[in-house]
Design brief:
The protein has strands spanning 7-11, 21-24, 35-38, 52-59, 63-72, 83-88, 94-97, 112-114, 125-128, 131-138, 145-152. By secondary structure, the protein is an all-beta fold. It is globular.
Protein backbone atom coordinates (compact mmCIF):
# COMPACT_ATOMS: atom_id res chain seq x y z
CA UNK A 1 0.00 0.00 0.00
CA UNK A 2 1.22 3.48 -0.80
CA UNK A 3 0.55 6.53 1.37
CA UNK A 4 -0.52 9.56 -0.64
CA UNK A 5 -0.46 13.18 0.51
CA UNK A 6 0.20 12.19 4.13
CA UNK A 7 -2.53 9.54 4.43
CA UNK A 8 -2.56 5.74 4.25
CA UNK A 9 -5.87 3.84 4.36
CA UNK A 10 -6.04 0.04 4.53
CA UNK A 11 -9.16 -2.10 4.84
CA UNK A 12 -8.58 -5.00 7.27
CA UNK A 13 -10.25 -7.44 4.89
CA UNK A 14 -7.42 -6.75 2.44
CA UNK A 15 -5.52 -9.42 4.38
CA UNK A 16 -6.54 -13.07 4.27
CA UNK A 17 -8.29 -14.32 7.39
CA UNK A 18 -5.96 -16.08 9.80
CA UNK A 19 -7.45 -18.75 12.07
CA UNK A 20 -9.18 -16.92 14.96
CA UNK A 21 -9.21 -13.59 13.10
CA UNK A 22 -12.59 -13.94 11.41
CA UNK A 23 -14.09 -11.87 8.64
CA UNK A 24 -17.56 -10.58 9.52
CA UNK A 25 -20.35 -8.36 8.25
CA UNK A 26 -22.79 -8.89 11.13
CA UNK A 27 -22.28 -5.52 12.87
CA UNK A 28 -23.56 -2.64 10.74
CA UNK A 29 -21.64 0.54 10.03
CA UNK A 30 -18.41 -1.00 8.75
CA UNK A 31 -16.66 0.42 5.69
CA UNK A 32 -15.72 -1.70 2.70
CA UNK A 33 -16.68 -5.36 2.48
CA UNK A 34 -16.54 -6.14 6.23
CA UNK A 35 -14.19 -6.21 9.21
CA UNK A 36 -12.08 -8.60 11.29
CA UNK A 37 -13.08 -9.80 14.75
CA UNK A 38 -10.84 -11.68 17.19
CA UNK A 39 -12.60 -14.94 18.13
CA UNK A 40 -9.62 -16.48 19.89
CA UNK A 41 -8.96 -16.44 23.63
CA UNK A 42 -7.98 -13.38 25.66
CA UNK A 43 -4.20 -13.09 25.39
CA UNK A 44 -3.48 -10.29 27.83
CA UNK A 45 0.07 -11.42 28.65
CA UNK A 46 0.98 -13.08 25.36
CA UNK A 47 1.73 -10.52 22.65
CA UNK A 48 2.41 -12.16 19.31
CA UNK A 49 1.29 -15.56 20.61
CA UNK A 50 -1.81 -15.64 18.45
CA UNK A 51 -2.13 -15.77 14.72
CA UNK A 52 -0.55 -12.69 13.21
CA UNK A 53 -1.52 -10.78 10.09
CA UNK A 54 -0.15 -7.56 8.70
CA UNK A 55 0.38 -5.17 5.86
CA UNK A 56 3.40 -3.78 4.02
CA UNK A 57 3.13 -0.11 3.13
CA UNK A 58 5.28 2.74 1.91
CA UNK A 59 5.53 6.34 3.10
CA UNK A 60 7.50 9.15 1.49
CA UNK A 61 7.68 11.54 4.45
CA UNK A 62 10.06 11.26 7.42
CA UNK A 63 7.70 12.15 10.27
CA UNK A 64 5.62 10.99 13.19
CA UNK A 65 2.63 9.21 11.67
CA UNK A 66 -0.55 8.89 13.75
CA UNK A 67 -2.29 5.51 13.84
CA UNK A 68 -6.07 5.70 13.83
CA UNK A 69 -7.53 2.19 13.94
CA UNK A 70 -11.26 2.08 13.17
CA UNK A 71 -12.52 -0.33 15.79
CA UNK A 72 -15.51 -1.34 17.85
CA UNK A 73 -16.24 -3.20 21.07
CA UNK A 74 -19.56 -4.15 22.60
CA UNK A 75 -18.90 -5.00 26.27
CA UNK A 76 -20.82 -2.60 28.55
CA UNK A 77 -17.55 -2.09 30.49
CA UNK A 78 -15.55 0.19 28.16
CA UNK A 79 -12.30 -1.32 29.46
CA UNK A 80 -13.20 -4.83 28.26
CA UNK A 81 -12.88 -6.40 24.78
CA UNK A 82 -11.33 -3.13 23.59
CA UNK A 83 -7.77 -3.83 22.46
CA UNK A 84 -5.28 -5.56 20.20
CA UNK A 85 -1.50 -6.12 20.07
CA UNK A 86 0.27 -4.14 17.32
CA UNK A 87 3.90 -3.93 16.26
CA UNK A 88 5.70 -1.93 13.63
CA UNK A 89 8.65 -3.20 11.60
CA UNK A 90 9.19 -6.28 13.79
CA UNK A 91 9.60 -4.16 16.94
CA UNK A 92 8.00 -4.51 20.34
CA UNK A 93 4.36 -5.56 20.61
CA UNK A 94 2.28 -2.75 22.16
CA UNK A 95 -1.29 -2.85 23.39
CA UNK A 96 -3.50 -0.44 21.43
CA UNK A 97 -6.90 0.24 22.99
CA UNK A 98 -10.07 2.30 22.76
CA UNK A 99 -12.19 3.12 25.82
CA UNK A 100 -13.33 6.74 25.79
CA UNK A 101 -16.91 7.48 26.93
CA UNK A 102 -19.29 6.58 24.15
CA UNK A 103 -16.95 4.07 22.50
CA UNK A 104 -19.00 1.03 23.48
CA UNK A 105 -21.18 -0.10 20.59
CA UNK A 106 -19.84 2.51 18.17
CA UNK A 107 -17.23 2.49 15.42
CA UNK A 108 -14.43 4.81 16.52
CA UNK A 109 -10.91 5.78 15.52
CA UNK A 110 -9.65 6.15 19.09
CA UNK A 111 -6.31 4.33 19.27
CA UNK A 112 -4.12 4.74 22.33
CA UNK A 113 -0.90 3.02 23.35
CA UNK A 114 -0.71 1.28 26.72
CA UNK A 115 2.89 0.78 27.78
CA UNK A 116 1.86 -0.80 31.09
CA UNK A 117 2.70 2.18 33.28
CA UNK A 118 0.77 4.84 35.12
CA UNK A 119 1.78 7.47 32.56
CA UNK A 120 -0.93 9.05 30.41
CA UNK A 121 -1.87 6.84 27.47
CA UNK A 122 -0.68 8.60 24.30
CA UNK A 123 -2.31 8.56 20.90
CA UNK A 124 -0.78 5.70 18.92
CA UNK A 125 1.91 7.01 16.58
CA UNK A 126 5.11 5.89 14.90
CA UNK A 127 8.23 7.72 13.79
CA UNK A 128 8.64 6.49 10.23
CA UNK A 129 11.36 7.17 7.69
CA UNK A 130 10.69 7.18 3.95
CA UNK A 131 10.42 3.65 2.59
CA UNK A 132 8.59 0.38 3.14
CA UNK A 133 7.31 -0.61 6.59
CA UNK A 134 5.24 -3.47 8.03
CA UNK A 135 2.46 -3.21 10.62
CA UNK A 136 1.24 -6.42 12.28
CA UNK A 137 -1.71 -7.36 14.47
CA UNK A 138 -2.04 -10.09 17.07
CA UNK A 139 -5.17 -10.96 19.06
CA UNK A 140 -5.48 -9.69 22.65
CA UNK A 141 -9.15 -9.25 23.66
CA UNK A 142 -11.87 -11.58 22.48
CA UNK A 143 -14.55 -9.94 20.29
CA UNK A 144 -12.48 -6.84 19.44
CA UNK A 145 -13.43 -5.63 15.95
CA UNK A 146 -11.16 -3.85 13.46
CA UNK A 147 -12.54 -2.30 10.28
CA UNK A 148 -9.67 -0.31 8.77
CA UNK A 149 -6.52 1.55 9.67
CA UNK A 150 -5.52 5.08 8.83
CA UNK A 151 -1.92 6.26 9.24
CA UNK A 152 -1.68 9.98 8.76
CA UNK A 153 0.44 13.02 9.34
CA UNK A 154 -0.63 15.32 12.20
CA UNK A 155 -3.24 17.84 11.15
CA UNK A 156 -4.20 15.98 7.98
CA UNK A 157 -7.69 17.21 7.01
CA UNK A 158 -10.23 14.43 7.13
CA UNK A 159 -7.66 11.89 8.30
CA UNK A 160 -10.31 9.78 10.03
CA UNK A 161 -13.06 10.24 7.49
CA UNK A 162 -14.42 6.72 6.90
CA UNK A 163 -15.34 7.72 3.35
CA UNK A 164 -11.69 8.02 2.34
CA UNK A 165 -10.88 5.43 -0.31
CA UNK A 166 -8.35 2.70 0.40
CA UNK A 167 -4.80 3.54 -0.60
CA UNK A 168 -3.46 2.14 -3.85
CA UNK A 169 -1.21 -0.90 -3.87
CA UNK A 170 2.24 -0.85 -5.37
Amino acid sequence: FLAQSGLLVIEMESAPTVDDWQFSTSTPGFVGDGYFIWRGPDLFNSPGASWIFGFDFEVQTDATWILSLRNRHEDPDSTEENDVWIRMDGGQWVKVFSNFPGSVGNWTYESRFDFGSSQPMPQASYDLSPGVHRIEFSGRSRNFKMDRLHLHLPGHPGATDPNRPASPRR
